[in-house]
Amino acid sequence: MRVLAVGAHPDDLELLCGGTLARLAREGHEVVMCHATTGNKGSYVHTSEEISRIRTAEAEQAATICGAEHRTLELSDGEVLAADVGQRRLVVDLVRETRPDLIITHSPNDYMSDHNEISKLVFDCSFHATLPLFATSKPHHNQVTPIYYMETASGLGFAPTEFVDISRVIEIKVAMLQAHASQLSWLRDHDGVDIVQQMRTANAFRGQQCGVDYAEGFVSSLTWLRCRTRRLLP
Ligand SMILES: [Zn+2]
Fold it and tell me: Which residues keep their CB under 5 angstroms from ion ligand 1?
C-alpha cells in the first residue's frame, strides 16, 4: 500500500498518528509524511525564516526515524484555507504524485483552524484529484482514496471507531516527536505542556480502551467511494 499522511504543522503527524505510521513503514508499506505549513509562526526567539528552516529539518529527521518520505506544502501557519484555489491545486497534486491507497489526516473538528482547514482540503482534493478535467500538470489519480481521521489534540471531542496497537513502537514514536526539539520548547513556553508526556498519557488511555499498553484511535470517513471491505490500518 501507499499511505499519504497529511498534517497541518511539522509535528502533528508524529503526535497524533506517529505510531501507526511507524508500524505501516515497518510492515512494508510506502509512507509519505506531509506537513502543510513550515511552522513559521511558532517561536519567541527566532525569525519566521529561521524557525521554518529549523522545523523543516526536524520534520525530515522525524520522517527518517519513521521510515517515511518527507514532504511539505510550504504554506504559512494560520493561513491554511480550504477555499483557496491555489492550495486546492497543491493538494490535488500531492494526491496525484503520491497516488495513495490510504490517506490519514486531521479530524474535521480539531482545536485550531489550520487542522480543520487541512482536513477539509484533503477530503475535497482527494476527490478532485480523480477528475481528469481538473487540469494540473499531473495525471489524475485512479481512485477516491479512503480517509482515516486521526485523533484531535488531547483527544477532546474524538470518539475512535478503530484502534491501532502501537505498544511495540511507542519508543519510536517518542523519538519521532523528540526530533521536534524546537516545538517541544515552544509548547512548554506557549502552552505550558510537556507534549511527550501528554502523548504518552493520551495513547495509554486509548490503549486502556482496547486492551493494550498504548494505542492510537481513528475514525474512518464513511462516505461514498471511500469505504473498503478489508481493514486498511495495521
Ligand atoms: Zn498543529
Answer: 8-9, 12
Cell of 174: 517518542
Q: Which residues, 6 or more positions from 141, have their beta carbon under 8 angstroms from its beta carbon?
A: 95, 96, 99, 126, 129, 130
What is the pLDDT confidence band of residue 94, given thresholds at 50, 70 and 90? very high
Ligand 1 center–CA 36 separation, angstroms: 10
Other Cβ atoms closer than 10 A to 74: 13
Burial class of 18 by CB neighbour count within 10 A (0 to 12, 13 to 18, 19+): buried
- Ligand 1 centroid – CA 77 distance (Å): 9
Q: Domain 2-220, CATH 3.40.50.10320 — does that match? A: yes
- Answering whether pTM is above 0.70, one says yes
